[in-house]
Specification:
Elements (H helix, E strand, L loop, with lengths): L23 E7 L25 E8 L3 E10 L9 E8 L2 H7 L1 E7 L7 H18 L4 H22 L10 E7 L2 E7 L3 E6 L2 E4 L6 H7 L5 H6 L19 E2 L4 E2 L5 E5 L1 H4 L4 H10 L2 H14 L6 E10 L15
Antiparallel strand pairs: 1-4, 2-3, 3-13, 4-5, 5-6, 6-7, 7-10, 7-11, 8-9, 8-12, 12-13
Helix pairs in contact: 2-3, 7-8
């Protein structure tokens, strides 16, 4: 997203969740600061792990009995920013029945740095979407779609009510893993990849004007990559009363060996897709996260960097050939 240097924000690592989400166990959210009362979310202590330097990490898994979802999420302020305004979280509910019904959830959000209050927006997106996803009794795709709309309305209303927050917004990309299926929702230019059988596939599309020109053939890939406005968002949470999010049109079947990668642009701007593919295919989730973040820092780390690597580990699952998947709408 658009990235003038040195946008002010609160400093330090804070952890917060809504008291209405007590039914869901939050393994970790990595956030910068606490959420204001306008979102009805009160700070609450929880278990966390930290690694310094270069960043903060959560390593965990969702247990489905005969296999687990192995997950690691990691975030870092980068090399040129004092503050980390990214937000990334990995959630799993208490109880086998709820885990079977809604699965585990990973979310990354990256605030829009051209606007005040954006860091609050990214933290709110992760907290609100995760809470509403588990509160909603609908199937995962519908629950994610509804959570994105409510989060958008709450962030937008907060920006209209407080002049200090006017114009704030954030990207948001969420992945739910339930049983042998995956679901996602997405808006902005954070990304979701899938690595399957050693090959990487981008499941989301960047919601930027430059990406739209690339899709219509107005720009070449090289021109788009170097374009001065490549991070100016066409869609984001909180910038207008309605959000046009990308929602998975049908469940994505999990296949043995699948691995998913969530990233903010601080990572995928500096690390090529082929490099993500190679590292994720060769390493476990924790090592892959650490290597990807280190590579982004080696190349300048001009933005906050967030990455999550997660996938099923255990018995063979969905190993038979499947028909082509329906693309997201």
């Amino acid at each position: 997203m658009d990235r003038p240097r040195g946008a002010p924000a609160s400093r330090g690592l804070g952890i917060a969740r809504g008291t209405r989400a007590l039914h869901a166990r939050l393994v970790l959210i990595l956030l910068a600061g606490s959420l204001p009362d306008i979102f009805g979310l009160e700070p609450e202590p929880m278990v966390s792990q930290r690694q310094e330097p270069p960043g903060q990490r959560s390593d965990s898994s969702a247990d489905y009995g005969d296999y687990q979802i192995e997950a690691c999420v990691l975030t870092d302020s980068g090399c040129q920013r004092e503050n980390n305004e990214d937000a990334i979280g990995w959630f799993q509910p208490d109880g086998a029945a709820r885990l079977a019904g809604k699965g585990a959830l990973a979310i990354v959000a990256d605030y829009i740095r051209t606007h005040r209050g954006g860091a609050i927006a990214s933290r709110a997106a992760v907290s609100v979407v995760s809470r509403l996803y588990y509160e909603n009794q609908a199937q995962p795709a519908a629950a994610l779609a509804a959570a994105f709309q409510v989060a958008n309305r709450e962030i937008y209303a907060a920006s209209q009510a407080d002049p200090a927050l006017k114009g704030m917004g954030t990207t948001c990309t969420a992945l739910a893993l339930r049983g042998e299926e995956a679901f996602f929702a997405h808006i902005g230019d954070s990304r979701l990849y899938r690595v399957r059988e050693g090959r990487i596939e981008l499941l989301t599309e960047d919601h930027t004007a430059v990406a739209e020109m690339l899709r219509h053939g107005v720009l070449t890939p090289d021109e788009a990559r170097k374009h001065a406005d490549r991070h100016v968002l066409a869609r984001a949470l909180g910038v207008s009363p309605q959000a046009e999010a990308m929602i998975s049109a049908a469940p994505l079947p999990l296949v043995a060996g699948d691995c998913f990668v969530l990233s903010s642009d601080g990572l995928h701007d500096l690390v090529e897709d082929e490099e993500i593919e190679r590292i994720v295919a060769a390493e476990d989730s924790e090592t892959a996260c650490a290597r990807l973040l280190a590579l982004a820092r080696e190349r300048g780390g001009y933005d906050n960097i967030s990455v999550g690597v997660l996938g099923p580990r255990g018995r063979e699952m969905n190993s038979r050939a499947r028909p082509p998947e329906r693309r997201a709408r």
